[in-house]
Design goal:
446 residues; alpha+beta; D-Maltodextrin-Binding Protein, domain 2; 6-stranded mixed beta sheet; 5-stranded mixed beta sheet; 13% strand; globular
C-alpha cells in the first residue's frame, strides 16, 4: 500500500498502493450478475449454499489477488494446501499488483474472463458491489456460522452494502511503529515511545547519540495513513458515513497535519521525504523510527535489521490507527454456474478457516477466535495486540477509492512539504472531495 495521487513504482515487490489509486470512474459496469442470487439463488442474493464440501465434477477456479509482497508466499502455501485436500477443485492462482488488479477486474468480469473468486480490500467492496462486479455471499456467511461477535468489531459491518454481504473477512492490517533497537540502546532509550512527549524525548536523545534525523516524515505513501490515524486520535472523522461529505478539515485534521509538519520543522525529519524513502532509510539504519504497515514485517525480518514493533504513540487524546482488511469475494462469472459457485464457496469457506495461519503473512486474523491461536500469539505482530480494538476503517462508500488520492492525499502532501498551511490544504481538499462525493452519490445511487 502506498500513497500519492499516482500509482507508484513497485518497491521490491512490496507495493500496496494500487487499492487507493485506481479511479472508480474507470470501472466498467458488469453486464451480468445484476440482482441475481449466488449459485442459483434468488433475487434476494441469499443463494443456496448449504456449507457442505463441494462434491460436484472436477473443475478449476480462477483466483485473483494482489499478494505480491512478503505476504505472497504465505498465500501460495495456503492455496497449495487447499488443492492437496480437494481432489475435485484446482486453483488457477493469478497474483498481480493491486493497481492492475482493480483496473482489470471490472472489464474482465464483464467479459467472463475474470476470476471466479478473489481477495480485495474492504474499502473496495462497496464500489465493486455497486458496479455489480461482485455478488452477495449471505448464504455462505450463514452456512459457515459467521457472526459479528467473532470478528473485531469494525471489520464486519463494512462488508455489507445495501443490506447484503459481499465480503468474507480474512484479516486486518494496520500501521505500527517500528524502531531500531541498536539505535535506542545507544541513545539510552529503554522502551518505545507511547505518546507525543516520549516520542519527542526519544528523538532528542537519538539526535544526541548521532542520528541526525531519527524520524523521517514522508510526504507521500504512507503519509495519508499516518494522517488518518492521527485524525482519529484527535477525535475527528474523515468522511460522513453516508458518503455525502469530507469532514477532515476540522480542528482534529488541522492538529494532525500540523503535528506531522512539526516533525520536519523540529529537525527530526529531513524535508521532502519521497515515497517510501523513510522505509528504505529505516532498513539501511539511516533513521531510527518509522510508521509503516505490518505488511513490512517479513521484509524487515529478511533484511536482518534488529528492529522492534510497537503500537502507535498516542499523539492525540486516545489511541487510534488506520486499518484495512482483505475480504474474499465471488464474481457473477462464478455465480451463474451452480457447481462453480459452490466450489468457490468451498474455497472461500476453507480460506476463512485459515485465518490464524495467515498470520505468517504478517497480518492480524480478523476472527477473534483465531487471534487466540499460537500462529498469532507467537507472531511478531502480536506485540501490537492492544491496538486492535482501536482500529478504524473508512466507511463503505462507493467511489471513495478514487476521491481520496485526488484530494486528501494531495492535502497531506502539501501540508508536510509546507506548500500550504494545514488549514488551507485541508479546507480546499475537503471542499473538492465533497463535490466529487456528491457526484458519486448520483452515479451509484446513494
Amino acid at each position: 500500500m502506498n500513497g500519492s495521487p499516482l500509482i507508484r513504482p513497485t518497491r521490491s515487490g512490496l507495493s500496496r498502493r494500487g487499492f487507493l489509486t485506481v479511479t472508480a470512474g474507470g470501472l466498467l459496469l458488469a453486464g451480468c450478475g445484476g440482482g441475481k442470487g449466488v449459485g442459483g439463488g434468488t433475487q434476494s442474493g441469499v443463494g443456496n449454499f448449504t456449507g457442505k464440501e463441494y462434491d460436484g465434477p472436477a473443475l478449476t477456479l480462477a483466483y485473483w489477488n494482489g499478494f505480491t509482497g512478503g505476504d505472497g508466499p504465505a498465500m501460495q502455501a495456503l492455496v497449495k494446501k487447499f488443492v492437496s485436500e480437494h481432489d475435485n477443485i484446482d486453483i488457477e492462482n493469478n497474483t498481480v499488483e493491486w493497481a492492475d488488479f482493480y483496473q482489470r477486474l471490472p472489464a474482465a468480469a464483464q467479459a467472463g474472463k475474470g476470476p471466479d473468486v478473489g481477495a480485495m480490500h474492504l474499502d473496495q467492496l462497496a464500489t465493486n458491489a455497486a458496479r455489480n462486479v461482485i455478488v452477495p455471499l449471505d448464504d455462505l456467511a450463514e452456512a459457515l456460522g459467521l457472526e459479528e461477535s467473532d470478528f473485531t468489531s469494525p471489520v464486519w459491518a463494512p462488508g455489507i452494502y445495501q443490506g447484503k454481504r459481499y465480503g468474507i473477512p480474512l484479516d486486518v492490517h494496520t500501521i505500527a511503529m517500528y524502531y531500531n533497537k541498536e539505535h535506542f540502546s545507544k541513545a539510552g532509550i529503554d522502551a518505545p515511545p507511547t505518546d507525543a512527549a516520549s516520542l519527542e524525548d526519544a528523538c532528542k536523545k537519538l539526535q544526541s547519540s548521532g542520528v541526525e534525523n531519527p524520524f523521517w516524515m514522508p510526504n507521500q505513501w504512507p503519509a495519508h495513513l499516518m494522517f488518518l490515524s492521527l485524525l482519529w486520535q484527535f477525535g475527528g472523522e474523515p468522511y460522513a458515513e453516508d458518503g455525502s461529505a469530507a469532514t477532515y478539515d476540522d480542528d482534529a485534521g488541522v492538529q494532525a497535519l500540523g503535528w506531522m509538519r512539526e516533525q520536519v520543522d523540529k529537525g527530526y525529519s529531513p524535508d521532502n521525504v519521497d515515497i517510501d524513502a523513510q522505509y528504505t532509510a529505516f532498513k539501511n539504519g539511516q533513521n531510527s523510527i518509522t510508521w509503516d504497515g505490518i505488511w513490512q514485517i517479513n521484509d524487515l525480518d529478511a533484511s536482518g535489521i534488529d528492529y522492534g514493533i510497537a503500537t502507535l504513540p498516542v499523539i492525540g487524546s486516545s489511541l487510534a490507527a488506520w486499518a484495512n482488511s482483505h475480504h474474499f469475494f465471488m464474481t457473477a462469472q462464478a455465480a451463474d454456474d451452480t457447481n462453480r459457485a459452490n466450489a468457490g464457496k468451498t474455497f472461500i469457506g476453507w480460506m476463512s478457516d485459515q485465518s490464524a495461519s495467515w498470520s505468517d503473512a504478517g497480518m492480524i486474523p480478523a476472527r477473534n477466535s483465531a487471534r487466540e491461536e499460537p500462529q498469532f500469539t507467537d507472531s511478531t505482530q502480536y506485540a501490537i495486540k492492544d491496538q486492535i480494538e482501536a482500529l478504524h476503517f473508512l466507511p463503505p462508500v462507493p467511489g471513495l477509492g478514487d476521491v481520496q488520492p485526488q484530494t486528501l492525499e494531495v492535502a497531506v502532501n502539501e501540508g508536510i512539504l509546507g506548500k500550504k498551511s494545514p488549514e488551507d490544504a485541508l479546507s480546499g481538499a475537503a471542499s473538492n472531495a465533497t463535490e466529487l462525493m456528491g457526484k458519486n452519490l448520483e452515479k451509484f445511487g446513494g
